[in-house]
Design goal:
With about 80 residues, the chain is an all-alpha fold. The protein is built from three helices and no strands. This is DUF2164 domain-containing protein.
Amino acid sequence: MSEIEFSAAEKEAIVAKIKHYFCEELDQDIGQFDAEFLLSFFAENVGVYFYNRGLSDAQAVLEERLQDINDAIYDIEKPTDYSK
């Protein structure tokens, strides 16, 4: 698996959210460097859990859609003397 990387715009938005959270919820002002360091830590150590959950959720949606397609194909199947 490749490393989780964000574009500059994504990184800027996430860092701003981190700084805002610390200010509003923890009543602490953290600098840009500290917020970026925290983002890097979570991306490297915690991000994979969110990534894997996202993959699992996507796989469940795909399996559900494939089952719908299989059901639709079964519904239009014509009877024959031949059995599978």
